[in-house]
Amino acid sequence: MNNTDKQITESAGTSKSPLEVQKINLRTQLSKKYGFVTIKIDRLTIMGNVELEENQAFQNLCQFWDVMELQSNGEYAGFYGQLFRESTENFYVSYMPIKAKKMKTKNFYLEFNPAKSSQANLKYVFDYLLPLLEEISISRIDIALDFERDLSSFILGGRSKKKIFFGTDGKIETRYAGSGDEFIIRLYDKKKEQTEKGDKVAQEEAQKFDQLWRLEFELHGSGFIENQLKKEFRFLSDTPIYQLDFEDRNYIELSPQEKIIFLSKDEHPELFADLSKATKAKYNALRKKASIIDLADMTRLPFELTEICWDYPKEINLIQFLNDILRTKGNEVQVADS
Q1: Could you tell me which residues are beta bridge partners of residue 184?
Q2: How confident is the model at residue 73, as a pLDDT?
């Protein structure tokens, strides 16, 4: 049994090492202060290059995929489909060398959800498939943090574009922020989504919580992701995600006009930026007094608690996990002991 096999198959909670105790304490602290429940990789897209003619192992793999795409002359153009045809798990895979050459991109593409993947399928990807690839990169990753608390009153700050969606009852259900090209931040009612759109298992899981909200970071572009990975995703803490206390005396005593200015920093930051330095300083100081909690302060803390595998849940260190994927060629993906 190699190191990856050993680490993936070890059961959570079997060790009471100092590291395990530290993780338990961290989870307890985050739960008490923020209502933190879990952190997961909700989507992962891996790209790379492989030459079919020079790789017999890859040739054997391709013949089991769903579809072979042909050119007009009858020659093959590539393969795509589900990596595991007999599984209900979604591991979409594509090998399109001709199209990739025209578009000047990598010819292999794999998209899956590590949190909804079985232990056996993840081991296959890490131990057998990824080592066949060259120039591996990560073109998309969705990092999802769940909280057992109502986050509808939390504001996504910063200068990025924002959208708010309301339910039929007039309550906020989803907030969006981000550039779109490199990252999107979503804050939404996960319990409502699972109850209305999830399968039976998801619905039953959602009913375990009085409240369940998700904070999701969707990152795009291999260059952006790898640059942020080198910085251990410090940018996640750059966008304020906070709740204001509108019962605070400093806010209540403001005039209606002043309240508009107070809130404009979030809803219209471009207008707030045009205010005088003294005016901005005044309202920034008021906001600090009226702020209850900022989730941005904790977004990077639970990385070592990241969960993968639905059948045998494991905790891995997110940063180490992603770095190991990028270094897969000639190495094994190391999954931290649970």
Answers
A1: 178, 218
A2: 62
DSSP structural state of residue 127: I
The label of the residue with tokens 């590539």 reads 78
- How far from the centroid of its chain's Cα atoms is residue 141's Cα? 5
Residue with tokens 């020079």: 54
Q: Which residues are bridge partners to 44 per DSSP?
A: 112, 141
The C-alpha atoms of residue 274 and residue 54 are separated, in whole angstroms, by 60
Retrieve residue 275's tokens.
């205010």
Residue type, 232: E
**pTM (2 decimals)?**
0.82
Residue 6 confidence (pLDDT): 44
Q: What is the reported pLDDT for 330?
A: 44
Q: How many CB atoms are located within 10 Å of the residue 266 CB? A: 18
The answer to whether 188 and 174 have CB atoms below 8 angstroms apart is: yes
Question: How far is C-alpha 232 from the chain's CA centre?
Answer: 14
- Report the 10 Å Cβ neighbour count for 191: 23
Q: What share of the chain is helix, strand, coil (3-state, %, to 5)?
A: 40, 30, 35
Average pLDDT, the chain: 84
CA–CA distance, 295 with 158 (Å, rounded to integer)? 14
Rg (CA), the chain: 23
d(CA 162, CA 267): 8
**Helical ranges in 154-292 per DSSP H:** 190-197, 200-206, 222-230, 249-252, 256-267, 269-272, 277-290
Contact 278, 210 (CB under 8 A): no
Average of per-residue pLDDT across 57-79: 70
- Local confidence band at 153 (pLDDT 50, 70, 90 cut-offs): confident
d(CA 165, CA 76): 45
Give the count of beta carbons closer than 10 Å to the beta carbon of residue 172: 17
* Residue 4 host element (H or E): helix 3-9
Helix or strand holding residue 79 (H, E): strand 76-82
The continuous run of DSSP H or E covering 146 comes out as strand 134-147
Does residue 221 sit in helix, strand or coil?
A: coil
Distance, in Å, from the CA atom of 64 to the CA atom of 248, rounded to the nearest integer, reads 63
